[in-house]
Amino acid sequence: MIRMLRIVFGLTVGAACGLGMALGWLWWRGTSLLSATWQVPTAQIEVPWPAPEADAHEASEAVHIDVAADAMRVQDGSEGVVDEPPDATALAVERGRTLAVERLRCHACHGEDLGGALVADDPAFGVLAGPNLTQGVLQGDGAMEAFERIVRHGVRRDGTTALMPALDYEGLSDREVSDLFAYAKSFPEVERTVPLSEVGPVLRLLIGLGQYRLSAFDIDHQRTRPDVPDTHDTELERGRQLASACRGCHGHDFAGGLVPGADPTWPTASNLTLHPDGLADWTHADFARAMREGRSKDGRAIDPVMPWQDMSGWTDDELQVLFAYLQTVPHKPSAMVAGPPWRTFR
Ligand code: HEC
Ligand code: HEC
After folding, report:
1. pTM value surpassing 0.90
2. Which of 206, 234, 283, 343 is deepest in the core (most CB within 10 A)?
3. Residue 295: strand pairing partners
4. Which atom of ligand 1 is nearest to the CA of 262?
5. Residue 230 above 80 pLDDT?
6. Which of 101, 306, 309 to mutate to test the pocket of ligand 2 (most atoms within 8 A of CB)?
């Protein structure tokens, strides 16, 4: 009997030690991944992006800027100016707004006023907070370079690994980065202090396990990016670009699952691939209804975490090419069983 107890005791201690060592190793690995540093070439990008003479008039009409109204005012002031040159800053800010609000969702983490926001605060996962962008980070020497570094590379000013999900933004052209900068800089200062982001114990272990990947590890930092978004792209390429607005939550393979860094009470993101766990039997009309009205194929209201309202301004054509692109990504089963808050890995 005593012998039996000894064996059981021995096995238990052994298992505990083994588990402890495994967790210790994962912890160490997570920590070393988090403290990696990067060599990023410094980008020289002009702000605001110069407005080319020829398209400027078209662009200003398309984006409803008050350039025309300004010209009118000048006219009223009887200066006789008929052709006010389009204001490069106003055009840049408007293009930046469309990008930040409809496509890239910068406000979801940095706040409506860009004064910073607490996205998640959880003892296990940690704190995710978008810093205040209105109190000087976009001012002064090297601000543009630092901005480009975190947005396209996921690397902080000092070369360390950032938590921001830059993988979604790494393909942006120079002009888009410049427009985002001009847009963000146009916000007035906001007095708000948000806590620093911090990686909690569970997230650290997930990073160690490779289940949560920091963007800087998946980005080719030496690759040259295009100057301007390529307008001669194929439909598929346009679809791929639009789909970058979904990756942050639905995953890089679009198979859904835990939304990285999100509040743990959020529902898991749906599988957008054509796997039976996902959109296998969806028609374009089902998809358009989900994106326009926030209704799933079976009529269920989609949780408001899914920002369809922000995207309801997308044109039919944009939804069409996006859906066509989703048809081409490899079909994958969902990594997780849906349903908050206690999700289980499959
Ligand atoms: C999922 C949340 C999230 C989204 C979306 C997001 N950010 Fe961030 N951002 C962060 C976090 C967290 C940090 C702090 C990163 C760090 O230091 O590890 C950060 C840092 C920054 C910084 C550096 C601020 C500083 O104090 O140095 C800039 C600039 C920035 N983000 C711009 C943007 C822009 C532009 C977008 C949209 C294209 C964007 N962010 C989208 C979470 C986010
Ligand atoms: C901020 C995170 C977030 C972003 C960004 C996002 N989604 Fe979602 N989406 C979700 C979540 C979470 C769900 C699940 C909601 C639910 O189950 O009610 C969802 C659900 C959906 C659904 C419904 C699927 C179903 O089975 O009912 C579709 C379709 C969808 N998303 C498409 C998209 C597309 C396309 C994009 C990019 C243009 C996108 N989402 C961007 C979080 C997001």
Report:
1. no
2. 206
3. 301
4. 1
5. no
6. 306
